[in-house]
Design brief:
Shape: globular
Mean pLDDT: 94
Radius of gyration: 22 Å
Strand content: 15-25%
Oligomer: single chain
Number of helices: 14
Number of domains: 2
Distance between the termini: 13 Å
Low-confidence stretches: none
Number of strands: 14
Strand order of the largest sheet: 3-4-2-1-5-6-7-8
CATH superfamily of the largest domain: Glycogen Phosphorylase B
């Protein structure tokens, strides 16, 4: 039985992509999977950032058949920041708890999920060969581009350094996995010899209620995921709700909620229009989609972020899997997908206003035939080509190729 070690620096251990999809799929297919995950201020944390102060307190435990090994994030911060130092001194950084725990797992494949866990992975790969004489495989699962070439998050000198170090680290990577075709093309342009596979953030197929049996007099638009006023979505949701409620029976359903220690107040005149479900378990999201007609994604700051332009987020495929067509503004990969498969509406503006979204929603509300057709197209393309079962096939093909395994 081949051993896989997932190495995580930032994500919660129950992350939908890392745990629910990839780790569970590998386990199901017979791989022995361990995840090494961070505690923050002593605690593991949920997908909304809530610390688990009464649960998962053991350093090592088994969760749904997968071995979870924990470490204190603070203990590795200084070491991992050495990625910015000259590469000749990198070995000093690899004497950290994360790397040492990973070495003890003696895995065949180390699968890392962030820029800093990639740095740890480089150390793991080197040390496994140096100390154990074992050549292991290193997968970089790039959920986004770090550094983002357009972002102003870092000073230019720091961003240049991060980019140069990324290219050095990629020389030691055996396989890149990423989340969109544009990010794949970006990596291929930088490192043509490193294989890259796209594995979308698709959920498994679940029970489905066809659109023509769930249309009601009220149009329900959904935002799924983490909502924060800092991102600007909340202000736009309130503005859209106010405009739409004047034109048609309307509900804006927030499937999810705020992060730990954050709170958003619904204005009194919109309490019957905007609803929060609160955080919903991954396995039950489809139950809350049954009364939803349209999914909403507003990509902000497209001129200042390649990640925004290239993103294919979980919520996008969650909508489509449940037969919910999506309305987006002009982000590269989302817009291209919707127009190719005719499963949503694209507002051809980089900055779409609340009025733009109102007009798009109103048009679909007034054309139930079109809404139903988009819904059918959405479900069909996920069933045929892009559900998690299809992505699982891609993931397993990557592993079989790396490990020279035959198809069983």
């Amino acid at each position: 039985m081949k051993k896989v070690c997932m190495v995580v620096v930032e994500h919660p251990f129950q992350d939908a992509r890392v745990f629910r999809k990839e780790a569970k799929s590998l386990q199901k297919k017979g791989y022995q999977v361990t995840m090494i995950v961070p505690r923050k201020q002593g605690y593991l944390f949920g997908v909304d950032g809530t610390p688990y102060k009464k649960h998962y307190l053991n350093k090592v435990f088994t969760y749904e058949g997968i071995k979870i090994v924990t470490y204190h994030a603070e203990s590795c911060k200084h070491h991992l920041s050495k990625v910015l130092k000259d590469a000749s001194v990198w070995d000093q950084a690899f004497q950290n708890p994360l790397t040492q725990l990973a070495l003890k797992e003696n895995a065949d494949v180390y699968h890392v999920h962030e820029y800093l866990s990639l740095f740890a992975g480089v150390g793991i790969k080197r040390k496994m060969l140096e100390h154990k004489g074992k050549k292991v495989k290193l997968i970089y699962d790039s959920h986004e581009l770090t550094p983002d070439p357009l972002s102003e998050r870092y000073p230019e000198a720091t961003k240049k350094n991060l980019y140069e170090k990324l290219l050095l680290m990629l020389d030691e990577v055996d396989q890149i996995i990423t989340v969109s075709d544009s990010i794949k093309q970006w990596y291929q342009s930088k490192k043509p010899t490193v294989p890259v596979e796209v594995i979308y953030n698709s959920p498994p197929l679940t029970d489905y209620t066809p659109a023509n049996t769930k249309v009601t007099d009220r149009l329900t638009v959904c935002f799924e995921g983490n909502l924060s006023n800092r991102k600007g979505n909340w202000e736009k949701i309130k503005a859209i709700s106010e405009l739409c409620a004047k034109e048609m029976p309307f509900q804006f359903k927030i499937l999810g909620g705020t992060r730990f220690n954050e709170h958003l107040e619904i204005p009194s005149h919109l309490v019957d229009v905007i609803t929060f479900t609160g955080w919903v378990d991954y396995a039950h999201i489809h139950e809350h989609m049954k009364d939803v007609h349209i999914g909403w994604i507003d990509s902000d700051g497209l001129d200042a972020s390649l990640n925004e332009r290239y993103a294919m987020p979980n919520k996008f495929f969650s909508y489509l899997t449940n037969g919910v067509p999506v309305v987006v503004n002009e982000s590269d990969d989302l817009a291209a997908f919707l127009e190719k498969y005719r499963c949503g509406t694209v507002i051809h503006k980089k900055q779409a206003s609340a009025e733009d979204y109102r007009d798009a929603f109103l048009q679909l509300y007034n054309d139930s035939q079109m809404l139903n057709q988009l819904s059918e197209n959405a479900r069909r393309i996920m069933e045929v080509s892009f559900c998690w079962g299809r992505m699982e096939d891609r993931l397993l093909a990557v592993y079989r190729s790396l490990l020279n395994e035959e198809v069983k």
